[in-house]
Automatic annotation (TrEMBL):
Tagged with keyword Coiled coil: yes
Sorted UniProt keywords: Coiled coil
Organism field: Lactuca saligna
Biased composition (Acidic residues): 267-283
Disordered: annotated segments: 230-313
Record protein name field: Uncharacterized protein
Coiled coil: 150-177
Biased segments, Basic and acidic residues type: 256-266, 284-295, 301-313
Amino acid sequence: MMVMMVMMIFGDDGDDDDDDDLGGFTYSLFHIRTKSEDEAIVSKGQFKAIHEKLDQLQLASKASSSKAYLKEIVESLFEHITKVHAANAAKMNVAVSETADVCKSTTEKVDKLITKTTTFMESYRTTYNNKTASANEALRNLGAMFKTEKINLTEKVKVLDLELQQSEKQVKDLLSERVVVRSCIMDVTGLLSDIIETMDSMISITVRKDLAKKLSPVFTMLYRLQGVSPQLSDPKQGGEGGSNVEPPKVPIKSIINKEPKGKENLIEDEPIIDDDEDEELVDAELKSRKARDVELNETQRIVKEAEEKRKGR
């Protein structure tokens, strides 16, 4: 409506006087934005064109005959343009404020995300370094423990090997002693049997019986040591039906061959049963036991030293 009024005033060809007053003034249509274009942004060129139109209107108003009416129209048009400009400026300010708020919020979120990522990476790096150091320390301790255990096991193997050698030596010594004892038992048994079964008339049946009775515990002990059951019987006169001593299964090595003496000399020079011989046997057994005790003590000492060395390490 406003456009039509302006055209009626300035763009109508019916009045020649007005054409003379306006001179060479020409008017071009000014496009006023509709409601559908309220959201559009006014450019600088459009503002410049508006100012030029206003200047032209102001110049035309000076030459017009109806200045009051033209002034009212121009003021109304200027007021409308000012309102539109103010509304557009307000919308631009709101849009700029919203954009600034969005940018600020996005920047804060990005800063928080970067801060969290940096904190996580630092924490991860610290944890990784600590765990790596702990794992390396555990591996070093494990290696040292294995090394110490290997040394201890090596020492134990050496000690056990030494104990095994000592045990084998003791077994060999015991076997040798057993062979010697059995040989001595067979020799003594043979000699005593020869003495009891002798046909010498100088030894009466009473003496032989008494001798067999006294030697019976000796035979029992000897046969028990040899692992044979004793079988003795009373001798008769002249050795007939003498003591039934079971001969040993192993051939007897007679001491007479080693020390050749007559039976009479054995009977006359040395007593058949003497306490000194028992004492000698006891002394020999004690010496053998002492030797074994010494070997056992030596083995225990070696084991103890090895354990002390292991504990010291």
